[in-house]
Amino acid sequence: MKTIKYAWLAGLAAASLLLAGSSEAQTNFTGTVTVNQNIPDGNPVGLVSQTTFSGLTGTISSMSLNLDITGGYNGDLYAYLVGPNSTTLVLLNRVGLSSANDFGYSDSGFNITLTNGASDLHFYQAGSYTLSGGQLIGSWAPDGATISPNSAGSAYDGTTAGNFNLFNNTDPNGEWTLFVADLANGGGQSMIVDWSLTIVTDVPEPQTWALMIGGVGALLALRRRKV
């Protein structure tokens, strides 16, 4: 009978630990940064905008970024996002550059949401797209092209969209950096109006911790009785 009883307790503890690992709640946070600054034309030094998040719980399970840039020449722009743990995602990399286009797309600005699962931003004119006041609008996947923005157009052929999953399971707290540069002269002046990050985190629910503690307690009690 004792063997059966101990096996039952061990099973209960294991089930508790399993539930602890699988039961999570999600939190949703959006932080907006107002910039309203011109991006230096034809200057790789670019423009840096930073914000710091604190007090967020859990680890990142998904993200998206809203970007509002007015004016200029879209094919001139290069941009990336750096997270608190130095993870880097390319957002814009001379959109439209290819073996068939050495200058990129000439539209003026972006008012877009960058998110996983959308169409590739780099080749947005290859499909259906909408401009509003010269700006590209809608939801798009980050450019993601990790090659040098000074590469020839042909180097962009076959590049694939980027993915925010790079940031998954990391701590959202800390400094986030947006870098944007205009790498060609003569396309006009671009300005960053604002940008915002929406971060979804996974957080263990309170009852999950109670189950986990109960499971550990059962294991300890079982061990003491065996001794």
Mean pLDDT: 86
The domain tally reads 2
Helical content, roughly?
Answer: 10-25%
Calculate Rg over CA atoms: 24 Å
Order of helices and strands: HEEEEEEEEEEH
First CA to last CA: what distance?
17 Å
Helix count, DSSP H or I runs of 4 or more residues: 2
For the biggest sheet, the summary is: 6 strands, mixed
Structure commentary:
With 227 residues, the chain is an alpha+beta fold. The protein folds into 2 domains: 1-23 and 205-227; 24-203, Galactose-binding domain-like (Jelly Rolls). Helix content is 19%, strand content 40%. The chain contains 2 helices and 10 strands, in the order αββββββββββα. The chain has helices at 2-22, 206-226; strands at residues 24-39, 43-53, 59-71, 77-82, 88-93, 109-114, 130-132, 135-140, 174-182, 190-204. Strands 1-10-3-6-8-7 form a 6-stranded mixed beta sheet. Strands 2-9-4-5 form a 4-stranded antiparallel beta sheet, with no helix packed on it. A hairpin with a 5-residue loop joins strand 4 (77-82) and strand 5. The longest helix is centred in the N-terminal third of the chain and has 21 residues, at 2-22. The radius of gyration is 24 Å and the shape is globular. It starts with a helix and ends with a helix. Residues 1-22 and 208-213 have low confidence and may be disordered.
